[in-house]
Amino acid sequence: MSIFVKRKSRDREKHEPDSDRQALQQSAEREFKRQFFGLLLVIVMWSLAMGWLLALATNAQSVTPTAEIGTVDVVPAQYQLGQELYLENCATCHIGIPPAVLPTQTWKNLLQDSQHYGAQLKPLVDPPRILVWKYLSTFSRVQLDDEETPYRLNNSRYFKALHPGVQLPRPVQIGSCVSCHPSASDYNFRRLTAEWQ
């Protein structure tokens, strides 16, 4: 019987270190999981806070629905100088029209030609010409293969598409824009007269 007790106590001594190791391992696993989920929670909270701050900052800089954009398109910073040069060179003698009302090919031809609707103009030279071209080509539209290049607003299918149901004066002239767009001389085609709002 004493041999049996000794063997049992030896077996217990052998198993006790294993159970201690298992307990330590389980404790370490629990601690790792707790730290992992704690870190994950910190990352999620940080992301939410940064997203909220970014949204707040962006919202403060963006145009609110009640504020006017002014031009037809919101112009990214890399095209703003081109837009300014376009308006300086093209909106001093007449109202500057948005690039979207004529196809890209029309704008390209207008930039290259010194004859401008019966007037002799000094053509733009580089680098201003390149900046104006980047602005116009980015915001104008593609011309169809079978379409003639329009040089008058009333011949532009884009101009007609942008004015559905509008009885346009005959002939359409750039000065006619002011009758519906009172701020057209400020390059603001979003503000309309009361009859069109």
From TrEMBL:
Residue ranges of the TM segments: 36-57
Record region (Disordered): 1-25
Annotated GO MF terms: electron transfer activity; heme binding
Keyword DNA repair: no
UniProt keywords, alphabetically: Membrane, Transmembrane, Transmembrane helix
Ranges annotated as biased composition (Basic and acidic residues): 10-21
Origin: domain of life: Bacteria
InterPro entries in alphabetical order: Cyt_c-like_dom_sf (IPR036909), Dihaem_cytochrome-c (IPR018588)
Keyword Ribonucleoprotein: no
Protein name per UniProt: Cytochrome C
Record organism: Nostoc edaphicum CCNP1411
Organism lineage string: Bacteria, Bacillati, Cyanobacteriota, Cyanophyceae, Nostocales
